[in-house]
Amino acid sequence: MNSNIKIGTGKINFKITMITGLTSLLIVAGFAEPAHKLFDPLYFHSGIQLHSVVRQSMTNPCWNFRDDSTSTVRYSLQAGSTNGDFRRILDPGQINDSYWTASGSQRLGERSLFYGSFSYRFQTAADKTWSHNRQPYSGLPFVFADSSTGDWELNGLMWNVDISREFIRDRVYGGISVFYNVDEEYQDIFPRPKGNHRDMYINTGIGAVSSNDSRLGFMLKYFNIQESLATSKYSLDQEKTPIFYKLRGLDTPLIFRGQTSEERLYSIDGLAVSIDGTIRKFMDSKIDFAANYGSSTADNVDGGAYPIEQGSWEDEYASYAVDFTVFLGNNTDIVFYSNGLQRFQSATHPDLHLEIYHETERQLSGGIILNLGTKSSWFLSPSAEIMSRMLKREDTFNGILDYFPGTLWKYHLLVDTPDRGYVDFKFGVGFDKYFVGNDEIFLPNNVGFYYQSITANDELYYGTDYTSFRFTEMLSFGQKRRYSLELEYLRLIPGDSQYFNYSFREQLQLNFIVEDLIRFTK
Amino acid sequence: MERWINFSVGVMENKILSKLFILIFMICGLCLFRCEETVSPPSSMRLNLTVTVKDTTGFSMENYGTELVENATVYLNSVSYYTNFDTLSDSTGTAGFFQILPDNYNLSVTKRMVSNFTKVSMNGSLVNIEVFGEDQNVTIYVQPAVASQLVISELYYNGSPPQPPYNIPQYFHDQFTEIYNNSDEIIYLDSIIVADLDYGHADEDYIYAVHANMFPGTGKDYPLYPGEFVVLAQDAIDHTIVVPNSVNLSGADFEYFVGGGDVDQPNVENMIKIHHKYGIDVLYSVFNDAVVLLKVQDPFAYGYSQFDLILLPKSAVIDGIDYRDNLAEVEYKRLDASIDAGLTGGFEAYQNKSVHRKIDTYDEGRVILMDNNNSSIDFQVLDHPTPGYLFDE
Questions:
Q1: Residue B387 in contact with residue B234, Cβ under 8 Å?
Q2: Could you tell me the domains of chain B?
Q3: Chain A residues with CB inside 8 Å of B81's CB?
Q4: pTM, 2 dp
């Protein structure tokens, strides 16, 4: 970029260059996986939400060596609880999740860094209606269920290994990351369905850094998600016979009475590519960007000796994120950011071999963060964001269409107190307001019991405005051995709806981390 | 605060001001791309089914001058989705079902009429009609059937769930059959046979019975007066002793007795065993079965199938009831439309539920039970059996 160009002095060539450049970036980047974790495929598919300790699959592993070449040993407990009735009807009433994690990183020679983590997970999901699937709202419309509402308990183990390497000193880096999860969950009441999950993510990335510390990275990600659901022959509850539902979209599930055992297998295979980078010294500013495109397919069969196809599913998503940081000096900068996501899903009927379901999800947001530093080392970061989003579900088999646009305004203030070396404390408060736009619901005349008892309730949920309050806190102390306590609290309060009033939904997340840290010197 | 003001002023004076304006403009521009779109009613795979109801037996032609049956109630149920619809045929004998899902469907038709002072039901059924790809037209043929004088008013086949103190997991000894005189004349039960049938015998002339038992008597020993009924128990004892929510059948009029270890209540008249293929008692299936009343001169005259089922003439059937736990499985019906064009039940085993014939009307204080020869519309499900009395909604 020619630094002699005078910004804002009427030299149209700069504006054209600027606008063209950023527009091109957005087009090239498409819709991508952003730095703000706009879209987490791991969570989307598996429901696993690990915050501060496990790196998972979001970031390009090639940068680990350059960004955090630190030898550490960490132990953490992450515990979270979500409850309240402002929820979709197949979501559990209450979810308590805890992860016990040991992780660490270690330099391997001069140019490699090893990182690994191992976690034990325990989850209870209370008041879960019907669905045996871990994520009944993933957009996969073929959900297996029975007529019971009960509590589930999950035990799981997961590990993560990253190796990153510097190929050319201060210039070229590469890395590979593997994440693996196995867990088992079961319902405590008749007919006692059981679920087993196996999730695997493999990321490989490569990146280059310029002399001014700008960087560009590429990442290729493969993931395979497997879910096996089984209800075995009942022997203790002979007075009862289960009613199984094979859900296929927004209405008219298949109903099976008197079956003594059922098995359902899901397998999702996906590939994703990403590009990420940083452009520094761009008119005294910095641009961070990320873009992601992914595609996956799901097979879905009834198990047993002769598996029967139960429908297939395709998922395609793209997302982007751009952060534009303008440095104003004196530890102060302004970040303008935008991110977006578009996702298409379609499902094919197992017998008719026709597409019977489409789901489209779209989000686009823009925001501004003002990072204000002071001489006394206080740091204030007020921010504001507007997000436009849309969910469209089209069940072409039943002839039902749901369309829910909406706008979310987010305001947040982060306060970072002066770091006294031994104790660090920061906290944030936030306020969000969500407004539903002109939603549309199209129905045939003769909808069935499933629509009336499930889908119609979900439509009330999606069509409800809400207000949310957020509070975050992080306290850490210690020097060689660092103790951190992180807290996140979120409370959603639904606004007035012409249909229905929920009371609230709240989430509390608590992380406790013990970290032994040794910093290498290059 | 003053520092910030000074700072801001200083910054705003330099080139960054212009840069900020450009960036704000761009971010605002991005925000203008809202995610909303225009949507229209969705495409749908739903289809239409047109049903023409015809009577080629000559009955309708004789009474109405046409083979097309008007005002017949047409029932449609989906095999896969458990959905049920009904509508009336119009003056051209046509009934339409609109916007139904692609699936296999079962159809049944019933029309009630009076001909020559006799109540007649026109019944017909079709199973597994494929409605896929495009709208369909089908013709269903009906035939007349005269309403029975002696009817099964209640059938309790379901069994009881386990209950303290004994928690017996599958208690079915409390089954009973209630038989009602729906006519205005005395009917003698002597030699009337109660039988339950096997599935899967496509025979126009005979039914294939697993168990068949006959009322005792020589001709006029057991009169049943108009509006009265008898209770036929599997075991005529008080079942509430072992399962408190069950029924007390110690006052039953008759009971099955197959010999061996079967309960034999001395105060209750035993049925005469005609045929008993298996079991230590006469057990109706708690899931699906068909029970009929019939009368023949010699029940042993028609022979046996190779699978040890006794054959009885279909023409001798007085009344019948076909039941299943899954009402969508019409293709597994055991009785044809001339006896029972429908299916009753639709609940799980061991729930303490019974099926009870609905009250149709009253004739000078006497209850007339509904009898269209279609158990789908003639029967209702009761949450608890009512042996010895009629259930009035």
A1: no
A2: 47-146 (2.60.40.10), 150-382 (no CATH)
A3: 252-255, 448
A4: 0.75
